Amino acid sequence: MAARQAKARLSNSPDQQPDLRCPEILDVAQLLADIGEIARSGGDSRAALLQHMRSVNKQGRKAIEAMLFEDGSGILCARRISWLQDELIRAISDFALTHVFATPNLSSAERVAVLAVGGYGRGTLAPGSDIDLLFLLPYKQTALGEQCAEFLLYLLWDMGFKVGHATRSVDECIRLSLSDFTIRTAVLDRRLITGNQQLFDEMSRRFDDEVVAGSSAEFIAAKLAERDARHARSGDTRYLVEPNVKEGKGGLRDLNTLFWIAKYHYHADTREELVALGVLSRREGRLFGKADDFLWAVRCHMHFLTGKAEERLSFDLQPEIAERLGYNTHPGLKGVERFMKHYFLIAKDVGDLTGILCAALEEENAKEAPAGLRQWLGNLRQRSRSIPGTLAFQIDSNRITVTSKTVFAEDPVNLIRIFTLAARHELEYHPDALKLIRRSLLLINQDLRDNAEANSLFLDVLTDRNNPELHLRRMSEAGVLGRFIPEFGKIVAMMQFNMYHHFTVDEHLLRSIGVLSRIERGLYQDELPVVASIISTVKDRTALYVALLLHDIAKGRPQDHSVAGAEIARQICPRFGLDERETELVSWLVQEHLTMSMVAQQRDLNDRKTILDFAEKVQSLERLRLLTILTVCDIRAVGPGVWNGWKGQLIRTLYWESEPMLTGGFTQTSRANRVQVARTELAQALADWPEADKQAALDIHYENYFLTTPLEDQVRLAHFIRESASSGFVASVRTDSFRGMTEITVIAPDHPRLLSTIAGGCAAAGANITDAQVFTMSDGRALDIVTVSRQFPQDEDEMRRGDRIVRNIRDLLGGKEAVPTLLARRPVRDLSSFVVRPQVRVDNELSNALTVIEVEGLDRPGLLCDLTGAMSDLNLDIRSAHISTYGEKVVDVFYVTDLLGMKVTGENRIERIERRLMSVLESAEGEASSSSSSNTALAFGMVQP
Question: What's the CATH class of domain 214-368?
Fold first, then answer.
């Protein structure tokens, strides 16, 4: 009850320091009495003091954690920890002066002030935060001052604290603050813990007069540049699914930046003062407080849970933090997903507040300019910022802004028109305009959503020829997009709790629009040759952009998001002004947006039935083109490293194989022609080879190799095959730091267990396969290329790991090691936070000649070996395998026959296969097998001669 009352007091006066003195945390009088008794007891008083202080700190933090669970206030928790830390430092300092050095009365030269600076100076600490101290001296260090500081610091270190400290005179503080913005910022957040008040006051006065006065502009510029650099290092997005709560975009450091700017420029220490100055509205002030409290609660729970200063909200922490904060599962959304949605909405609020403060600063700077200069600048702007066709908006320094504060109230369509004009004239947005937009969001009602002009203007933004992603992003950040399209508003800041998607749903949709725009502008001619060549032939450009915007809009609902999204598209498209044919096309694209990716990566593209079934679903060449473009944009927008040349080659192959089915047999590039072109290109790339070697390099591969392998890889592999012509087993390792992958290439005599053996070597090293290509060559050898997730940041370390994988494979093939022995030593990745329902499907309709077995389940080291080993035990012949991974979930598809080369048809046998493979998926360790793997692959095709 007392904790709840304290939180209520804080809510009423958000920045006033509450009275945190609480016997549950620390009885200060009792602590002083206890350490006095320690001093009088004799013996090793320091050891006794250390033991007692450790106990006091442990008990106090345990009480603070309990209070965090009771009242839920993150900011109160941070202040309680700071208060506890203050009292411990005061007690230790008092013990040192009074009992260790027996000098309670200091001379003027020995005056010392112990200051908290940085985050600790603001009176807030997370459980694992550094303790930043400044020992402030009047002149130079004295022997007594040095001894006292050492006693305090060493005791704090021995207690387990990470203490950052500096010892400086007042003059040194002022001099260093003038030259170093990091030091200036730390001193800005200063607070006296113990020691001489006059010395502290002197430094504060001189800091304000000699450092702060007249330097607001340079300080603000430095802090904003520092923020931008920090954002760039983290990917410049606040929608990473494993965000850094402290340093990430929209995190606590961004709020700190606002605090610093407000304190430095406005001399305001509280949000209430910013509201009183008119910088923030009352609503925005409350928003500031909510964001600060929420982020502190998350951070404190993370530190308490992990027992260390963990700042990254990783997948394994998210469910536990969600549970600690009381988030429950709702239909379509897990509790952890609801928690992360709230987190990202808070991060967005932090971004909005930054924009509002920047607008206020810019307006104030304009007012502070000399009158003559103000008039001259005003006249110049007036001549250069008018926008033809509108009186509501104007241009200010290449940014669109409003001509008055009533433009949206007078005509709500202007809330959409401003983005259209900005896109048309390639303008950025003035902070004043964005602030007014955010304060006018209630004007976006059903009447505006049904307004034909507003919808037409929105389509102009969506299909802009230059940079639609930028303007849609600004529209979303301002809150307009989510209110104008309420279905989009439901997925704003929504994360999917899996390891496949790197961004929130709305961020993914906006990035996919950006990819499409760049394709249209010819920026991917070499990297994406098919979509680059067909984009100009697309007739339904508007439908394509609308479909891309809507393809994941139904995420977070109980039903399949593709089906539900198609229904949403049927409702929204007529509102946008699309006719019946266009509406049906958009709906179809949304419903089938995963089909091409699934077929390309999980089906055998050499099986004619696969192509026939896909073509029957697509039905027209225009749909094929649109679906191909949408698929590429979708995959590329998932996150870094998800798209690669292998996936691109698979999608190109599926496109070219399907095209003749949809054009009555006519295709611009037939299969035979494409194989011949690929052979010719490889021959040209090997022009300097002897003719016999060149011909051997061309003849050793079957058709599918040329259709599914990028040319640059063909050239590299040709050299590798040539060098290994006389070897029974040879392997190479290649790292790719940009994609975060390492590639293992193996050439060995082909045999039924080779796939499992190679995968077993990877699993034994704890390596997750993220891509794989397996080819049989005409000389009876197999060419296997597996790509595993990178583990080490340095290439040298990663190469050593790759060499260890190669040794594992060689030892397994040579009989020097057994798979169970290797697997017993493997590192295990913890995926216990994720739940994937295991499924096994045996299908005889997907292929005319082969049985297709599809398994789906939770990834784990050794899974592929267990699956393939079980199939061998079941007397199944694997003709091709397609191993797909979506983060923690695997979808593995095997094309098999019985040992006589026939389909598996008996009901009892099919049931036995399903039961055996299901037991592999459900097994915690997997069944014993003679081969093994870590299974996280994206496309795995075994090519038969």
Answer: mainly alpha
